[in-house]
Amino acid sequence: MNLQIEMEHHRGVLIVRLSGELDHHTSDTVRMQMDEAIQRRQCEHIVLSLKNLQFMDSSGLGVILGRYKLINQKGGKMAVCDVNPPVYRLLDMSGLFKIMPIYDNEGNALSELEVVS
């Protein structure tokens, strides 16, 4: 299975939707596309939607942590939403939820980041 990346800008938030598998084969592509979107467009925050992400390994975790660090250095926030059980387990074991909030869906994440009027 490969990976599909969908990106959308919404009121200063980069929404990234990943489908498929985020692993050592696809992590560089995700990293480059997210970095380009962060640099090219003015975005203050990132919402990472993992609703259709079926698998992730440590390479994917590194991509998420790296983008968190990048947006955090710019004074922004990053949130994760719609995480399925296998991916949730990896993120939980890694301690990611100690530094980054998780939400049930994109609407809740956007609302918490105070971008919905």
From TrEMBL:
SUPFAM superfamilies registered for this protein in UniProt: SpoIIaa-like
Pfam families in the cross-refs: STAS (PF01740)
CDD domains tied to this protein: STAS_anti-anti-sigma_factors
InterPro entries: Anti-sigma_ant, Anti-sigma_F_ant, STAS_dom, STAS_dom_sf
Keywords on record: Phosphoprotein, Sporulation
Residue intervals of the STAS domain: 3-113
Protein family membership: Belongs to the anti-sigma-factor antagonist family.
Record's function text: In the phosphorylated form it could act as an anti-anti-sigma factor that counteracts SpoIIAB and thus releases sigma f from inhibition.
Protein name: Anti-sigma F factor antagonist
Gene coding for it: spoIIAA
